[in-house]
Every structure is written in structure tokens, then in C-alpha cells.
Model the fold of this input.
Amino acid sequence: MNSKDLFGFDGKTVVVSGASSGMGEAAAALLTELGAKVYAIANKKKIQVPVEKRYNTDLGDKRNIDALIAELPQHIDALFLCQGMAQTSDNHLLVQKVNFLSVMYMAEALLGRIPDRGSVTLISSNGGFNWQKDFKICREVIDIGDYDGIVAWYEANPDKLTDAYCFSKRCMDFYTVYRAHDPLYIGRKIRLNCINPGTTITGLTDEFNRFTSGTDDAEEGRRILEKLFHESWDGHWASAAEMGYPMVAIGSNLFSYMTGEIISLDYGLSAKWTMEELNGVTNHFGGGVG
Done:
């Protein structure tokens, strides 16, 4: 059996968001090599990967998302939602809209185009670690159900968004577990999984570093992140392909019996944090907005 047969993407229609850089671009590149017809959603950056069609849109605006959904293929074998943005001091609401709400909204709007036993694969972050501590508030958001209602909740609860990036990722992790056995998905055997990347070199790295520094100093932010996330357990920066490629595998036939899983790709950092939790030590950012 060759690799195309193993993955099962040859001739299949797939949609990849965030496809102009980083993990989404890496996923789109591998999918094209595996014979998939890739429909790429991106910002204004040029896509280096040969795709069937690209769509430029702002995923922080519902009107743009609705227009995009109307243009996407009516048949989608696999959906890979990789959009995301870094947090700054004044974009807390936009982070929620792009990093979580647009993902949930698009996934559920497009489910009717995905055949039985298809797949939906998401990119979250190890910033979502300890989502269990916030699951009630995440469920409250998800159970609102409609886009505008969730935006209204965000606007009414700004205190819950101060740790904006991590909260969006905890909602993503919880959504994966919560919805996997919802009839929307399991009723048609559509698999829902996500990956939780660790520190990865992408187009967002500089923005993350600047925000982390507190002084808009990217180099200082890099040193802080490396001390926090690398030195304590001999970690290192990952490449975008080290996230995008496993994501493709998870959405493929190779993982046809897996759903509802949050896969940590962080060189063991989440394992370290788990052991700290078991030993009563909490010295990281996991959980606790409510």
C-alpha cells in the first residue's frame, strides 16, 4: 500500500483555513502531495502551495464568514480549521471571534457538506491546558449556540476575556470533547479532533514574543518564552511542519477510529504540567478564568 492509499486523500476535496503560513500552509502542502484537491482560506499573504482555489477573507467578521461559506465547495471530504491570531493588549474580543467562534461557526455550518465518516480537525494550543477547570464557562458559551448570541456574551463578560488567547483555546479543547459525541458529529460518524501545539515558529511568533515581553520587545519575549517553556524540560522550538503534518494524519484514514481527542504536540510540556498538577504544584497558566 502506498502513502496516498494509507492517508486516503487522493482525489478528495479538502478545505484548509489559515493556509497562507505556518501550520495551515504545512498541512495544505502535504495534502496536495497526497493528491487532495485543496481549497485554501487565507489572509492577504500569498499562498506558496498549488491549490484548487484560494479565498481571502477576514474571519473576525460574521458577514465575511457567511459569504465565504456560500462560496466553498458543496462537498467537503475533510475540513482543517487552522485560523488563529495572537493576543495584544486591546484585541480580546477579536481573539475570541477568530480563534474560537469562527472555528465553531464554520465547522457546524459546513457539517452538512461533509459525508458520513468524514473528518473535522482543529488547531488549538497548549494554552488550552487545564480546560477542565473552565469547562462550565466554556459550555455556557458553546450552549448559546448562535454567533451573535456568543458575541453578546463576550461583550457582557469582558472580565472573562483578559486571558483572551488561552480562554479561546480552552473553549476549543472543550468543544472537541463536548461535541465529538453530539449527534451533529457522531450521528454521521464524522470525527472531531484537535491538536494542541507547543512553541512553534510560525508567522505569529513575532507577535507572541512582543506581547509576552510587555514592552513590545520581540527578543525579550523570545527569551521569556524559552525560559518558561524550554529550559525546565529541555524543550525547543518546533517547525510548522511538525504540527501541520500530524494534523493531516489525524484527519486522514490513518486515524479513522479516533474522535474527541486533544493531541498535545509540545515535546512533553503538557506531560510535565500534568505531573506538576498531580504533585500539587501549579506554576503555569492553565485554567481559571471563572
About this structure: The CA atoms of residues 27 and 248 lie 6 Å apart.
